[in-house]
Give the backbone structure.
Amino acid sequence: MTGGGIAVALVVVVVARLFGVDLSGLFDAGGPSSPSQSPQPEPPKGPDPDAELVEFVNFVMKDIQDAFTAKFAADGKPYERAKLYVFSQVIDTGCGRSSSAIGPFYCPADHKAYIDLSFYRDLRARFGAPGDFAQAYVLAHEIGHHLQNLMSLRSKDSVRVELQADCFAGVWGHEAQGKKLLEVGDLEEAITAAAAIGDDRLQKEAGREVNPETFTHGSSAQRVKWFRRGFDTGRFEVCDTYSAKDL
């Protein structure tokens, strides 16, 4: 700097100090500065921890639909296969945007079942219902809703709708047992899962008073009852919850 430049600089520094302004950037001896950037997380390394579970879900999905295709064919009816989407956190569906907070669900508008794998972890850790067949039961229940869609079975009573889907899931379980796919304890796993997500149990766990008038899926006993009805008979006809007097 020239003598005049030094004087001006000193004045600027003095004024800056009086007003608390940081001028260090003006006198940086380095090259041009670049905006600071937060370190980017590295992509996860190693095998996908959910790969085995995804493979299992795909196997179960295929077996469920193979069984229902055969049962429809035996009645001389075509079966339209549903699609399965495994997602994380949020997803756009034919029924609108949904999130993992809702849990597994079936969208009749696009004929697709949606499952966030975190629900299976909750099923084991939160609801105390571990096991492969417990997971399979949940998926079969959603495809049970697909059957309702194909059969044009509709009701404004959500409990009857959900219990029928449980019964349809049991029908698939009957078929799986006939193909020797079940192991010792598998049926108990499904029953435990059905009981764990009954409305009465969920209300109790939430510290609320049990109120049947607010049920949406049925009590634990009802869910187990209708799943067993389908499992024990293997027939769709026994799943008529809409006309049943005693659920």
Summary: The longest strand covers residues 83-87.
